[in-house]
Amino acid sequence: MHPPVRYQIVDNLAIVTIDNPPVNALSHPVREGLQTAIARAVEEHDVSLILLLCAGRTFVAGADIREFGQPPRKPHLPDLLNQIEACSKPVVAAIHGTALGGGLETAMACHYRCAVREARFGLPEVNLGLLPDAGGTQRLPRLTGVEAALDMMISGRPIGAGQALETGLIDKILDSGDIRAEAISWAQSLAASGARPRPVSAMDVPGEDCNAGFFADYRNRIARKTRGLLSPELIVQCVEDAVSIPFDQALARERSRFMECKSSPQSAALRHLFFAEREAAKIPGLDPSAVPRQIAKIAVLGAGTMGSGIALACLEAGFDVQLLDSNEDALSAGQERISSLLDKQVEKGRITANEAADRARRLRLAQAYEALSDADLVIEAVFESMEVKRDVFAALDQACRQGAVLATNTSTLDVDRIAQATSRPRDVLGLHFFSPANVMRLLEIVRGAQTSDEVIATAMAFARRLGKVGVLVGNCFGFVGNRMLYGYGRESQMMLLEGVPPERIDRVLAGWGMAMGPHAVGDLAGLDVGYKIRRERTDLPDDPCFYRVADMLVERGRLGQKSGSGMYDYQPGDRAPRPSAMVAQMIREEADRLGVAQREVSDQEIIKRCIFALVNEGARCLDEKIALRASDIDVIWVNGYGFPRFRGGPMFYASQLGLRNVYDGICRFRETLGDRYWRPAPLLEKLALADDADGW
Ligand code: 3HC
Ligand code: NAI
Fold first, then answer.
1. Which of 25, 402, 577, 590 has the fewest CB within 10 Å, making it most exposed?
2. Which of the residues in the chain have pLDDT under 50?
3. Domains of the chain
4. What is the pLDDT of residue 291?
5. What is the DSSP letter of 641?
6. Index of the ligand 2 atom closest to the CA of residue 433
7. Sign of the C-alpha dihedral, residues 156, 162, 166, 170?
8. Contacting residues for 617 by C-beta, under 8 A, at least 6 apart
C-alpha cells in the first residue's frame, strides 16, 4: 500500500503531498503522515518553505466521516492544524477540486493559499449536523469577515475561487493548468521575497460587521431555514466567541460544541443520510457489463403539471427536449409554464438571460407521435389511467426507434401492465418524478419484471445528470414512496373524524419537522389527484371512514389551492391556509353519521400514528424487496416527501427509537384502534422480538 502522505524535496521546498483516494479525507494515517512530514521539514536545514498539495481529483474533502462513530485517535485534527500554523517555516497550500470541512480548515492553518480557478471552498459540516472542529469557526471570520464566514458555515454551500480571492480566503489564483509547477514557482517566489509564517489565529477579526444587534439580526434571518437544528445556533455562538474572546479559549469552546453536535442523534441521522444517498446509487446484482445508453434527445409526453416540470428539469441539465401533448391548448399552456419559470429564475438571478434563452431554444413542441422517432428517452406523463397509458405505450412502440428507453411517470400504476402494451418490455421502466419536478431531488426508478440491466444503468446515470438522487424500487401499487404515504395519509384523515382539527395535525407534524403538515400538502398537490387514484383502485379496504374527509371535499368541489378552497380556505392571491368553519362542521356531522367517537388525541399520538404507519409499511416494502435497503426508504422520504433530514428518514428514526419500541407502540394501537390497520409488519415483528437486532 502506498503511503497516504508523500514527502519530497525540490530545491529549497519540502513538498508534502496527501494521496488518500478517493477524496483525500483526513483519516488517521493521513493525520499521522502530515504530522511527521511537517516535523521533518522543520528539522531539515535546507528547507525554507513547505508546500502542501493533494494528489488525485481533489484537495482534502474533509475529516473522514467514517471515523466519527469511532473513538478519536491522536493526532487530533485541531492539534495537528495548530502545529502546522505554529510551524517556523512558511506553509503554502495549493488547492484543486474541493477544499471542504477539515480540508478548508487545513488550508486556513497554512500561511498562504493558492488555488486553481475551478476550485471550490466550503465548510459543509452543518449538513452533517456538525460544526467545523479544527479552528474553522475562528479562522474563517478572521480571513473573510464575520458575515461571509457565517453565511458559508450556516448554508454549508461552497464558494468559487473568484469569491474566495475577493473575500481574502485565498491569496492567488493559478491559471496555467499545471497546478504543481505553478504552485512550486509561486512558493519559490514567496521564499525568495522572504515571506514569513503568517498565522491566521494572530489576525484580528474584521469588526465592521459586528455592530450592536448584528448577531440577534443574523439569528432572526436564519431562524426559518434552521428550524429544529442544533448546529447552526452553536456555529453562531462560536463566531460570537471569535469577536469577543482570545483564539485559544474560543478554540476550546468550539471543540466542546463540536462534541455536543457529534454525539447528537441529529448528526448521526445526517451522517447516515450522507452515506445512504451514495449507497442508493449502487445496485447489488446489476450486471457489471451493463453500460448506460447514450441519452441526448428526450421526449416528454403530456405537457401538464408534471410533463412541463420534467421537461424543464431536462432542459436545465442540458438535454434537447421534445414536449408533446395531444391537446393543443395544454401544449401551449405547458410551454408558457416553462417560459414563465425560466423568467422567474432570471429575475431571481439564478440563471442569466442567455442561459434561459438557450434552454428555451432547446425545447421543441409537437402534437404528433412522428416527432418522437429520434428520441433516446421518452418520459410519459399523461393522465393517470391504465387505459390511456397502455394506448400511449402501444403508440410509442410504433413511433420510437429500437433502443429508445420508454419510461412512465405514473405515481401508482403497474409498470408491467404498461410495458406489456409494447413489444419491448425490456426497454420500459418507471421514472417517478416528484412535483415540482425541476425542484424535487428524488427520482424513483421503477424496475419492471422485464426491465433490462442496461436500461436500469441508463436511468441511474440519467438521474445523476439531472442532479437528482435516483433510487431503484420494485413495482407495486405506489412503489415505495406513495405506498407508504397511504398509511401516513390514512391516519391523518382518521384523526379528523376522531375530532382533531386539520390545523392541529399539521401544526404538530410540522413542529416535529415535516416540511409541511399532511393537510396543507393535500391542498397544495390537489385533493382530486388522490381521489382519482382511489377510484382506479380495486383493493381499497371496506371502510367507510377511509379517506372519507378528502373524498367529501373533492365531491363538494374543494380541490385545494387550485380551486380556492380545500381542507382549508384561501384568500385570492394568498396561499396561507385558513381553518374553515364549514369544513369543521362537515367533519363533525360526518363523524356523527359514521358513529366515530370523539376522543382526546395527544400530540404524541398524532406523531406516532402517522410515523409508525409509515415505518410499518416501509418494513413491508423491505420484506417484499420493493425497497432494496432500509436506507433507500430514508432517502426517498427525505428527498421526496419533506421528511426531516435531521431525523434521518423513517427507518433510521425507527432504529434510533428502538424497533422494539415501535413494535410495542403499534401493538398498543392495535388494542385501542383495532387490527384493521395496526398489525405489525412481519419483518418489524421478527426484528423487534430478536434479542440482538438493533436496526434493519
Ligand atoms: N469522509 C469519508 N468518505 C468520504 C468523504 C469524507 N469526508 N467524502 C466523500 N467520501 C466518500 C464517499 O462516501 C464516496 O465513497 P464510495 O465511493 O464508497 O461511495 C466517495 O468518497 C466519493 O464521494 P462522492 O460520490 O460524493 O464523490 P463526488 O465526486 O460526487 O463528490 C465531494 C466529492 C464533493 C468531496 C463529496 O464527496 C462531499 O461533499 N463529501 C463530503 C464533504 C464534507 O462534508 N466534508 C466535511 C466533513 S466533516 C469535517 O471535515 C469536520 C471538520 O471540521 C473536522
Ligand atoms: P395533468 O393532468 O396536469 O397533465 C396530463 C397531460 O397529459 C395533459 O396536458 C393532457 O392533455 C395530456 N395527455 C392526456 N392524454 C394524452 C395522450 N394520449 N397523448 C398526449 N398527451 C396526453 O397531470 P399531471 O399531474 O401532470 O400527471 C401526469 C402523470 O404524472 C400522471 O401519471 C400522474 O400520476 C403522475 N404524477 C403526478 C404528480 C403530481 O403531483 N401531479 C407527481 C408524480 C407523478
1. 402
2. none
3. 5-195+209-262 (3.90.226.10), 297-473 (3.40.50.720), 481-625+658-689 (1.10.1040.50)
4. 95
5. S
6. 43
7. positive
8. 483, 484, 486, 487, 681
C-alpha cell at 509: 407534524
Strand partners, 470: 443
Which atom of ligand 1 has the smallest separation from the CA of 133?
53
**Residue 220 CB partners (closer than 8 Å, separation 6+):** none
pTM, rounded to two decimals: 0.94
pLDDT tens per residue across span 217-238: 999 999 999 998 999 999 999 9
For residue 504, give the amino acid letter. Answer: R
- Which DSSP helix (H) or strand (E) runs through 241? helix 231-244
Q: In this predicted structure, what is the pLDDT of residue 48?
A: 96
**pLDDT attached to residue 538:** 85
Closest Cα to atom 30 of ligand 2: 381
Provide the H-helix boundaries in 428-501: 453-465, 481-497
Question: What would the pLDDT profile of 601-617 be if each residue is shown by its tens digit?
Answer: 999 999 999 999 999 99
Tell the residue number behind the cell numbers 466550503, with chain if given.
122
Confidence at residue 520, expressed as pLDDT on a 0 to 100 scale: 97
- Catalytic residue numbers read 105, 125
User: CA-CA distance, 128 to 61, in Å (whole number)?
Assistant: 14
Per-residue cell: 514: 415535516
How far does the centroid of ligand 2 lie from the alpha carbon of residue 304, in Å? 5
Q: Helix, strand, or coil here: 43?
A: helix
Distance (angstroms) between ligand 1 centre and the Cα of 463 equals: 19
